[in-house]
Amino acid sequence: MSAANQPNSSSVPFLLTGIPGLEDLHVWISIPFCFTYIMTLLGNSMVLLTVRLDRSLHQPMYYFISMLAVIDLIFSTAVVPKMLAVFWLDSREIGFEACFIQMFFIHTSTAVESGVLLAMSFDRYVAICNPLRYTTILTSSKTIQLGLMSLARGAGVMAPLMCLLTRLPYCRTRVIPHSYCEHLAVVALACADPSASDLYSLTVATLLVGTDSVLITFSYGKILRSVMRLPSQEARLKALKTCGSHISVMLLFYIGGLLSMYLQLFSFGLAPHVQVLVADLYLTVPPCSTLSFMA
């Protein structure tokens, strides 16, 4: 049967394998992922509750932290429950639409979080480098506007990608060698040329994440330069402590994301289960780090 004549019904589900080659260890492997997910739920909920109840925290920086907490809750919940169902119940089936909805939430959450991290770096830049104008530049309404702009940008650039992917004919095997609907693994199942979606996703990733990371680096470079000029050692240490926790989370987000992406693109001779484990860790570990912003 030719590729053109093979069925591509959206009613045919995909099948997730979990971690290839380690199926017998799924129950044990699930324990740290379950623990991390619980910590994500508790930690981010605690952040939201603390900011909501403590009026002294009703400031732009803590609004941005609250946005990150919401993003991480959505991000984790889009992936981990289904992952645990695969590990615990061997519930490998995921509907065609559900697979792409999950992928949309993963990509959109990543894009929105990158935008919020950029907004946070701008917040710290103004607070440290131009403190006298901080309250006039970053008002509550402007903070919310920045958050909404990040959301609109993330959803706006990912919606066309989902349209491109769902229009591809998936007439090969429906088995995805992953614990979730990983983008490249799903595209590999298409029986048509995915060049358009590949070019679009690569362009978006390069421009969006690349631009954000460069601007964040520039902002924190200016911040560190200003911090070193502060006359008080106590003030310098306080500023470095705050910025240090922010930079650590950002490095985990960006470096982890790049590592996961490149391991999916180029195996580097690694076993498939190593690639899948790295991708799973990237989806579960960074979301539980938001609490460190409150330090």
Order of strands in the sheet with most strands = 2-1-3
Residue fraction in strands? under 5%
Sequence stretches where pLDDT stays below 50 over 5 or more residues: 1-7
Q: How many helices in DSSP terms?
A: 9
Query: How many distinct beta strands?
Result: 3
- Oligomer state equals single chain
* Rg calculated over all Cα atoms: 21 Å
Order of helices and strands: EHHEHHHEHHHH
Overall form: globular
What is the CA-CA span between the terminal residues? 61 Å
Structural class: mainly alpha
Descriptive notes:
The protein has 295 residues and is mainly alpha-helical. Helices cover 70% and strands 2% of the residues. It is built from 9 helices and 3 strands; from the N terminus they run E-H-H-E-H-H-H-E-H-H-H-H. Helix 2 runs antiparallel to helix 3 (96-129) and helix 8 (233-265) packs antiparallel against helix 9. The longest helix is centred in the middle third of the chain and has 34 residues, at 96-129. It is globular, with a radius of gyration of 21 Å. The N and C termini lie far apart (61 Å).
